[in-house]
Structures are given as C-alpha cells and as structure tokens.
Amino acid sequence: MIWMRRIFYIIENYIKIFYYIILIQLTMEDLLKEIETLKEENAKLKSQLENYHNSRKSYYEKNKEIVNEKAKERLKKLAEENPEKLKEINRKAYLKRKEKLKKENI
Fold first, then answer.
1. Contacts of 63 (CB under 8 A, 6+ apart)
2. Is 86 exposed, middle or buried (0-12, 13-18, 19+ CB in 10 A)?
3. Whole-angstrom Cα distance, residue 77 to residue 82?
4. What pLDDT does residue 41 have?
5. How far apart are CA 9 and CA 3, in angstroms?
6. Structural domain boundaries in the chain
7. 41-87 confidence digits (pLDDT tens)
8. Is 76 within 8 Å of 69 (Cβ atoms)?
C-alpha cells in the first residue's frame, strides 16, 4: 500500500508540473501577442505624433513674422494693462536663462 501511495504522489506531482508548464506556455503566448499589439500601437502613435509635430513646425516656419508680431502686441498690451505682471514674467525668464547657463557650465 505504501508503494501505491508513493506512485500516486509522484503521478500527482507530474500532473501538477505539466499543468503549470501548460499555464506558463499559454500566458507566454498571451504576453507575446500583447507585446506585438503594443508595438504596433506605439509605432502608430509615433507616426501620428510626428505628423502633428511637423505640421505645427511648418506652420510656425511659414508664419514666423506674424507669430512674432502677435507676441509683441500681446506684450505691449500687457505692459499697458499690468506692468507688474510683465516684470514678473521677465524675472522668471531671467531666472530660467541663468539656471540654463549654470547647467551648461557644469
């Protein structure tokens, strides 16, 4: 009887091992499929982003003068309405430039 229990125990362990191997293979297949779909989606999104970026970039290259004029007008309007706000904006820009120069020197 003892030898039968051992045989059943061994068979049971083999069944468990095969079950886990099958589960691992199934999950690996699912993971590989998921990786492929994510790679495809990533490539699609990169191409969309590149198209969007290029269109915006070309707009600013074509209309550079107009954009700069509008920005100057906004700054003039801001200087008339709220000079304190303009000082604050200039101060932040100065601090950013200063910090950027420190990083470049290091």
1. none
2. middle
3. 8
4. 93
5. 10
6. 2-62
7. 999 999 888 888 777 777 778 888 998 999 899 988 988 888 888 88
8. no
